[in-house]
Specification:
alpha+beta
Length: 63
């Protein structure tokens, strides 16, 4: 099982950015990885602001 480092961004008046590391399989599509990343952000942050959300895979490490 590998890992992915994901940058999650929420467009508010001041762009909120979260960097998280999630586990992933070698053949996982990006949307699955983004979903895991947003779930991890929700676990870490009790109050996430409203706004347009985007995510970007910074690095993917396959074991």
């Amino acid at each position: 099982m590998g890992k992915a480092i994901v940058k999650c961004m929420i467009a508010t008046y001041a762009e909120d950015t979260y960097i998280v590391e999630v586990s992933c399989e070698k053949d996982d599509i990006d949307e699955i990885i983004f979903n895991r990343a947003w779930q991890k952000v929700k676990e870490q942050e009790p109050a996430i602001p409203y706004g347009h959300r985007t995510a970007e895979i910074i690095k993917r490490i396959d074991d």
